[in-house]
Amino acid sequence: MKKVIAFAGSNSKHSINKQLVTYASSLVENNEVSILDLNDFELPLFGVDLEAEIGGQPKNAHKFLSHIEMADGIIVSLAEHNGAYSTAFKNLLDWMSRIEGKTFYGKPMLLMATSPGARGGKSVLGMAQDRFPRHTANITGAFSLPSFNANFTNGKINDPELNAVLKEEIKSFQEAL
């Protein structure tokens, strides 16, 4: 049995990306899945002066990175703020990359995003697909859920075609584990 971690790149307590990643995680079969919450890994705003002042990186950055290191695979659903990563996620990535430049350790990763709009976070997905391989992510696929409020109800995707696409991405991800 492989160990998978899943998280939303958001610190919103009502994150639609956390709802999506939680649903996607429920589709992973015969593996252990842990859902992480960025709120459990609060960090100060990254800066090289602060890093020098505190003598390194905060414990929560090390803790989150250790979850990645111990996992066999990663599922992440990125929130899109003004076309980019949320500040909370970018800050976490900045701190982790100071500890380990190969932040994702070559682990299989399913990238996802959703938003209330019709593009479904495609800008942040594109950014991550370009950036994450430089941090050694092995991206097995990407999934965008457009118009979250119309396509996601009762804890799951209600559009059969979109749901089928996600299931195929989950299957590819599991095969890469």
TrEMBL record:
What are the annotated GO cellular component locations?
cytosol
- Residues in domain NADPH-dependent FMN reductase-like? 3-133
Q: Pfam family of this protein, just one?
A: FMN_red
InterPro entries this protein is in? Flavoprotein-like_sf, FMN_Rdtase-like_dom, NAD(P)H-dep_reductase
Q: Which GO terms describe its molecular function?
A: FMN binding; oxidoreductase activity
Q: Can you name this protein?
A: NAD(P)H-dependent oxidoreductase
- Organism whose genome encodes this protein: Snuella sedimenti
